Amino acid sequence: MDRLKSSARLMIVSDLDHTLVDHHDPENSSLFRFNALWEAHYRQDSLLVFSTGRSPTLYKQLRKEKPMITPDIAIMSVGTEITYGKSMVPDDGWVQFLSQKWNKDIVLKETSKFPELKRQAETEQRPHKVSFYVEKEKAQRVTEALSKVLAGRGLDVKIIYSGGIDLDVLPKGAGKGQALAYLLKKFETEGKKPTNTLVCGDSGNDAELFSIPGVYGVMVSNAQEELLQWYAENAKSNPKILHASERCASGIIQAIGHFNLGSNLSPRDVADIGKDVENLSPGLEIVNFSLLVEKWRRAEVENSEMFIAGVKATILPSGVLIHPSGADHIMKEYVNILRKVYGDKQGKQFRILVENVLATQLDSDTWLIKFDKWELSGEERQGCVVTAILSKKDSDWFTWMHVHETWLEHSGQGEWLL
Question: Mean pLDDT in the chain?
């Protein structure tokens, strides 16, 4: 990762389904809590890695369905694919490594002889992964027999069974754990090994993550039986692995605090937004301001002149805001617009999500900040790239001096608040 010039303060490596993403939480509350925490306190100097069994196709589908922030690295297809950044640039070195002693055609031929195996969708069949469904009571017998057959054909493979139904055949050097080990070695070679790494999971294909030396680990409270059994047999005495009492993303936040890896107080858990002056940073300011506007529009704060005065105090009256449409506005007009939209999203599934919040310090008290801002209303979403200049002169608070917004590609371009 070229974004960080030195070692990441914290690298979080998390499974998605039922770990970071709670499919039983229609409000996505825990995910929004994690997102706000990460962007406010970690994005600037840490790394976020998603490690999922999903193929790129299903991973992108999940990103459309759930309010997930963009990771620095995505490990997909049960550790057989590694990509970087928003553009998902593949790691060619990992591809070359996995191609040793792997022949997908032979795997397909031999697995076709097992009637118990039902092929998953074509999107899940990847260059270094062949995936099936198999009934739980048949899984162990099929796994043992298939392993012997493929070994007899000269292949070094790994068979992973997870979720009580999914069976994946991979190169022996593949898997979530090996992909993470590869990344850690790569960072170490570059002199950028993360100071701390926290791995997070809920199912059997996450067990390898917890076996990497030196990492902290959290099994969320809703972890499946197969992972809990692995823990009981292999890591129960390991103080660096926690079985959280909280579900999904909330369990990850709990683990950050449990292991003293940094702040685990999400801005969404702070009743009086903006009062955390001691830890104030450009990232926290961006997150807090978006939360204030969200709460105002959801009528979750009092419609008062005190609130309006607080907003006025953070805006340079003569500053300019450039709307995504290209129209220029004096920033003091923003206050008048806020007055008119109080409670317009009351009772609705409305959230404001900011991500990729990165700040560059221009001088001792001025920052250039770039981030993506999304307004999510039910299944609709529209977003823009925001470039802002913030100042912190003779005050405990930041002042918004200039804002320039540009529509994000593939974003809805409907009504947009300044």
Answer: 93
